[in-house]
Amino acid sequence: KTAHLELDTNKLKILFEPNGGIIDSNYKIINIGDQIGDLPIPTKEDYSFDGWFTQIDNGTMIDANTVPNSEVTYYAHWTYVEPTYVAWIGDTGYRTLHEATEAAKDGDTIIVGEGEYSLYGTNKNARTGKTFTIIGQGADKTKFYIGTKVPTSGGSVTYKADYSLDNTEKVTFKDMTIQTGTSDYLGFVRLNNVVYDNCVINGKLEYNGYESSTFVNSTLNCPNNDYCIWTYTSPVITFDGCTFNSTGKTINVYSNATNIGNRDIIVNFNNNIVNGNSTGKTVLNINDSNRSDD
């Protein structure tokens, strides 16, 4: 048997055609003679909603005070809105950096505009195995957060280990500020290779490239009385033409067999400047006490 919904003869069924949009419910039942009341609000990507009309094109706009005299269908009207893009691969724009990294092919360069960015908490799978470069508009105009989403204005920030580039082959960050925190175990987890080129890096990075990490022409601002870089996960780490601002501690060469196996740790330190305001502190500390292969 088939069940049929029969309306009370004193009621009207009003239909809403979203015209390419998305709507929670496409009908409403009212009493005959009543105003239509609250109207649904549909959405459509890249369009602004103009209202409900009596015809799919043109027609008369209705509102909550409209009194239908029979069952009727109203149609959503839309105005196209040029989308706002924040990242580009060639001539193709993307609304978010995450979308751009998902679309990126191996070897692509992503240009991001002025503003603040993060990949924390986004789906890492679309980036697995890729190599790509992210270029900002300069350290004073583009900021990238590691280990947190972009903070809301005035909100508190808690930094954590960042898995958003887990199993990505190589990422180069260029011409931007890199912001992380001061607690332990921060950085990108299981990113194979990472390059920071002409960046300003604020905070501490313990998780670095699991195969290599390279810092070129960058400024590293260390936390107060703590190292800014640990070689915890990186068997090869290179600093070339960098400036370190610290309270004495700068780089801690430290790991164990669990992190990088029994490989040697190689630190290349070329043409760098270390500005420290404490005497008697070791700039490059070598600590193999936790190596299980000693």
The mean pLDDT is: 90
Which regions are unreliable across 5 or more consecutive residues at pLDDT < 50?
Answer: none
Total DSSP helices = 2
- Name the helicity range: under 10%
* Largest sheet: number of strands, sense, barrel closure: 9 strands, mixed
Give the class from helix and strand content and strand pairing: mainly beta
N-to-C span:
80 Å
State which percent range the strand residues make up: 35-45%
Cα radius of gyration in angstroms: 28 Å
Instruction: Please tell me what the overall shape is.
Output: elongated
Along the chain, the helix and strand elements come as EEEEEEHEEEEEEEEEEEEEEHEEE
Q: What is the β-strand count?
A: 23
Spatial order of strands in the largest sheet: 6-5-7-9-11-13-15-18-21
What's this, in brief?
The chain has 294 residues and is mainly beta. It has two helices and 23 strands. The longest helix is centred in the middle third of the chain and has 7 residues.
Task: Tag the structure with descriptive keywords.
294 residues; seven-stranded parallel sheet; single chain; 2 helices; elongated; mainly beta
Helices and strands in order:
Elements: E1 11-17, E2 27-31, E3 47-53, E4 72-80, E5 87-89, E6 92-94, H1 97-103, E7 109-112, E8 115-118, E9 131-135, E10 142-145, E11 170-174, E12 177-179, E13 193-197, E14 200-202, E15 212-216, E16 219-221, E17 229-230, E18 236-240, E19 243-246, E20 251-254, H2 257-260, E21 266-270, E22 273-276, E23 284-287
